[in-house]
Structure formats: C-alpha cells, structure tokens
Amino acid sequence: MEKVIKSEKEWRDQLTSEEFYVCRQKGTERAFTGTYNQYKKPGTYVCTCCGQSLFDANDKFDSGTGWPSFTRPIHPEAVATQVDRSHFMVRTEVLCARCDAHLGHVFEDGPAPTGLRFCMNSISLKHQPPQSPQLPPPRLPPSPPLSPEHRRRALVPQQAYSYRAHTAAGS
To answer: Fewest CB within 10 A of the end CB: N or C in the chain?
Structure first.
C-alpha cells in the first residue's frame, strides 16, 4: 500500500474544519452526535481523508458508548495502532495505515469473536454501500426463423428505393 503524504495546508484545503480537527489533530467528536453511531446499513466504512477501506458493516455493533464500534478492521493491514498517553490515561490509538488519520481507539472489552472494540469517530469515516455485481447485458431471444418468402427476399438483391424514381413513375 502506498502512503498518502500531504502538507497541513493540503489537508486543510481537502477537509472540513471538523474533519481536520479529528483526523489530523487527533480530536474527538462528542458521544452520540456522530452520523454512524446508530447507522445500520450494509457496506464498507472508508477513511474520510484517503478513501482506504477500513471496516465492514458486518463487524459493527452497538457498544452503547456513543461512537460507532467494530470488532475488527476489514483487513489487519488497513489500520495502524500506537500508544496514546493524552488526557492522563494510556490508550491504544487507531490510525488509517495509509494516511495516518486519527480514527479513534481500540479497547479490549469488545464482543466475540475478537474481544476488541474499535471505537471510531464517525467523522473519520465515510460509508460506502455495497456495490451491486456487474451483470451481463440481457440476452435477446433468438429471432424467429424466416418464412420462405422472407428468405427469398433476403437472398435476392433488391433494387434500391428512390423517392424521386417513385414519384416520377406517378405511383
């Protein structure tokens, strides 16, 4: 995976002020205010900053904390973690592995099968609905067989129709 590296100005130009505060300055949105806290539609959650796929909606659960929570990332390499010692506590911060956006924190009090709770900020995520499978174009039914008269006309060269010849003949 290729890292996305941008200057602070480039991130400010791309993101809203709230997105910049949470994703680039390691802020936190208030509990129970995020778009995806109670969101239950199928699909994939991607990074707000770079579009990296992060979490599958099938791994989302209601933790009661006020933030969208997941049991695991969509792929182990999708996220990175580091120690966060801010606010007089020690936690494990979760970052987008591609662009280092702050996503939230992971705790060891989640449900089976992982026992983990990836507690994310809604503003760090964008939901993408599942993509419908690409269907082949509809097949047309086979043409009915030509009648003997139509077959004869199709095989015999016809004289080209001419409006001028038709009107000059007086018909």
So the answer is: C
